[in-house]
Amino acid sequence: MAMSFNFNNIKRRYWKVTLKDNRSLTVKMPTKEVFDAMAKITGEQNSGLDIDLQMDEIHSICCSIINNNMERVVLKRSDFDDYDLEESMSFITEFSTFISSLQNDPN
Q1: Of 18, 38, 42, 67, which residue is most buried, by most CB within 10 angstroms?
Q2: Residue 51 near residue 59, CB atoms below 8 Å
Q3: How far apart are CA 30 and CA 66, in angstroms?
């Protein structure tokens, strides 16, 4: 008997996000580009980079994560200008926890 695998039958999981303006979006799993950016900023946190450059990068990552949503809402990086460092890093950390929980789930 031939075995097969169909990518269209994968059980998908999503993450519900509510923005400061109370819009709720359903975020999909990240792309490789977002994974790489998240890994890069985590390594840069202690490297003494200019805080403005770090904030731009962090807000870009938040924007990339949220723009990968089911509702197809597109945000600009500047939409995150009123999010502070603590909020932005908490978001990235919680998103990382969501991803890790899926990687550790055998189902």
Answers
A1: 38
A2: no
A3: 9
